[in-house]
Amino acid sequence: MTDPKTPEDELEASVDAAIVACDDDLxxxxxxxxxxxxxxxxxLALAIPAVSYGYSKGWHARRRVL
Length: 66
Prior knowledge:
56% helix
């Protein structure tokens, strides 16, 4: 019987997979991850105004109406 993977083991496996996907080029791996992060930040910036303050239970700042 094998031990269940810990979150740390899963994270390490994901890191290894990302590096292998970039042909062991660490700079390329970082570049890809930064581009993906920027894309997700842009998506979040679009989603925040579309979600009401009450629905999000206050996880984002309440919009000011001027």
